[in-house]
Amino acid sequence: MCDALDGAVDDACDRAGQTITALPDEHRTKIVLARAADITSAIPSCHQSHRAVTTLHELLADTAESSQ
Questions:
Q1: What is the pTM of this model?
Q2: What residues make up the domain containing 18?
Q3: Number of domains observed in the structure of the chain
Q4: Is 27 exposed, middle or buried (0-12, 13-18, 19+ CB in 10 A)?
């Protein structure tokens, strides 16, 4: 979250993505995915179109879909 707030968009998104993918399936709960989504929300609006943000959004959507 600190990276996101500091404007380190790539670092914040990469770290969140790596954390999510490293978790076993049973630990990828709605609350964990929601906290990862909070990271993208903390990124300033001028960086929301950044590729790393898009990639993290896609990962979270795919993970949420496969968790159902």
A1: 0.86
A2: 2-67
A3: 1
A4: exposed
